[in-house]
Write a structure and sequence with these properties.
By secondary structure, the protein is of the alpha+beta class. Helices cover 32% and strands 14% of the residues. The chain has six helices and five strands; from the N terminus they run αββαβββαααα. Strand 1 and strand 2 form a beta hairpin. The longest helix has 14 residues.
Length: 174
């Protein structure tokens, strides 16, 4: 194979949100750019484009990954799930609903990556406490600072915690 044929495209087959896609891609196209620019799946966000913020997190073969760091051709034959593939209006994924119920977003830019990461974290099965959630979600940044609400939303689904009730301030009657 010469450089001209590589630049023209490498055959890749991916299952994205339950649909098969047979594509020819230049070898340098990331999963993030494939999703956003070629397939118009814009729920996945481009944040830092260096794998440091987590805004682009998707599930690849059930594992959470920063899609800005993964070349699409390397994942030939893989299954990719984005925020669009997790739920739909009227039938949201439990984490999507919990983010709404707990106001786990402000501007919402990081929310798709936060939710996909939380789904992957949940599948890993290692979370026992809120501290575990904070540690395992530390690669997903929120510039608005909605971390408390994000942890509340995830804790409801992963740990089965109900929505926290406001505690009375010291000196107030309970």
């Amino acid at each position: 194979m010469n450089i001209d044929s590589i630049a023209a495209g490498v055959p890749v087959t991916l299952r994205i949100n339950g649909a098969d896609h047979v594509l020819e891609l230049p070898p340098w196209v990331t999963v993030l750019d494939l999703l956003r620019e070629r397939l118009a799946l814009t729920g996945t966000k481009k944040g830092c484009d260096h794998g440091q913020c987590g805004a682009c997190t998707v599930l690849i073969d059930g594992r959470r990954m920063n899609s800005c760091l993964v070349l699409a051709v390397v994942k030939d034959g893989s299954e990719i799930t984005t925020i669009e593939g997790l739920g739909e209006p009227g039938a949201l994924h439990p984490l999507q609903q919990a983010f709404i119920d707990h106001d786990g977003f402000q501007c919402g830019y990081c929310t798709p990556g936060q939710i996909c990461s939380a789904v992957g974290m949940m599948a890993e099965g290692h979370v026992q406490t809120r501290d575990d959630i904070r540690e395992r979600m530390s690669g997903n940044l929120c510039r608005c600072g909605a971390y408390t609400n994000i942890v509340d939303a995830i804790a409801e689904v992963v740990l089965g915690e109900s929505r926290a009730k406001p505690q009375p301030m010291s000196g107030e009657a309970a």
